């Protein structure tokens, strides 16, 4: 990693790079590829390709259509999960529950964004929403109770 970073920084400083290539190198130096979410990286790459004159416009249009199609599928999935969460009604029964459904779904989609993994995304989001939200609420309650006991002493 250090070897690559060193040589990419050297390229940026000492060698003339054409603007599109320079943009890609600068973007690669910000964060390693394995730290990024693929869907966000895809959007950045589509926007970067729009600024390059040599890109095949038909392929670029196909990439945009695919991105938008997958995004509309994600919106539908999130709507289904939102209805499930509302119908479950835990937020009304347990007032300390936090509503983190969208965050949990976004995290799950970061792992597996392809539409064929919908059942995994659904199951993982539901598990995270129920487990993490409940645990965070319990931890918060325990901290508050401990603090109250300390004050009484």
Automatic annotation (TrEMBL):
The protein's required cofactors: Mg(2+)
Domain of life assignment: Eukaryota
InterPro entries: Isoprenoid_synthase_dom_sf, Terpene_synth_N_sf, Terpene_synthase-like, Terpene_synthase_metal-bd, Terpenoid_cyclase/PrenylTrfase
Keyword Disulfide bond tagged: no
GO function term, MF aspect, one: terpene synthase activity
Entry keywords, A to Z: Magnesium, Metal-binding
Any one GO biological process: terpenoid biosynthetic process
Domain Terpene synthase metal-binding: residue ranges: 87-128
Name assigned to this protein: Myrcene synthase, chloroplastic
Organism of origin: Musa troglodytarum
Origin organism lineage: Eukaryota, Viridiplantae, Streptophyta, Embryophyta, Tracheophyta
């Amino acid at each position: 990693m250090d070897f690559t970073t060193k040589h990419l920084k050297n390229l940026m400083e000492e060698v003339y790079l054409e603007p599109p290539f320079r943009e890609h190198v600068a973007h690669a130096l910000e964060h390693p590829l394995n730290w990024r979410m693929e869907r966000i990286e895809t959007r950045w790459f589509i926007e970067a390709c729009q600024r390059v004159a040599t890109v095949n416009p038909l392929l670029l249009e196909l990439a945009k259509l695919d991105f938008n199609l997958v995004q509309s599928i994600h919106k539908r999935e999130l709507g289904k999960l939102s209805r499930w969460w509302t119908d479950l009604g835990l937020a009304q029964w347990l007032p300390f529950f936090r509503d983190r459904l969208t965050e949990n779904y976004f995290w799950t989609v970061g792992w597996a964004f392809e539409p064929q993994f919908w059942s995994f995304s659904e199951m993982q989001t539901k598990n995270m929403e129920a487990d993490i939200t409940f645990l965070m609420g319990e931890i918060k309650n325990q901290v508050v109770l401990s603090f109250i006991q300390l004050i009484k002493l």
